[in-house]
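Here is a complete protein record:
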Amino acid sequence: MKRLLIVLPVLAALSACEQLGIDDPAKVAAAKEAEGKAIGSACRHAMRAIEDCYTLNPKALKAAVYAGWREMDEYMRENKLEGVAPVVPRPPTKAELAASAAAAAAAEAAAAEKAEKSGDKPAEKAAAKSAH
């Protein structure tokens, strides 16, 4: 009987773990699933490709994003809805960033070569401007 009196308050305290800030793993997983579906739905409504959704939301569950995207696609087709054009541009890929950096470096080199061929040096130009 004494054991029962000790065990009951402990069980009651443990049943209120959410009040202590301890998350239930099942609820966390359900929330991540719902968030992924919402992201996928929003991406489809914004006429983004599924790959764009994955790129823009790397922490979201890919399966949930795909499920939400697919559900929204079916819904939009059934109801003949048009998507909304996205406002946020697609982020550049690593290859695009590398290509733009290489192009900028090539442009700088070409400008320096042109200045060198013409005999003008940037330091001389600055000195000539400050003398006037």
Notes: The helical segments are 2-14, 25-45, 50-56, 62-78, 94-118, 122-131. The chain has a mean pLDDT of 80. Residues 94-118 form the longest helix (25 residues).
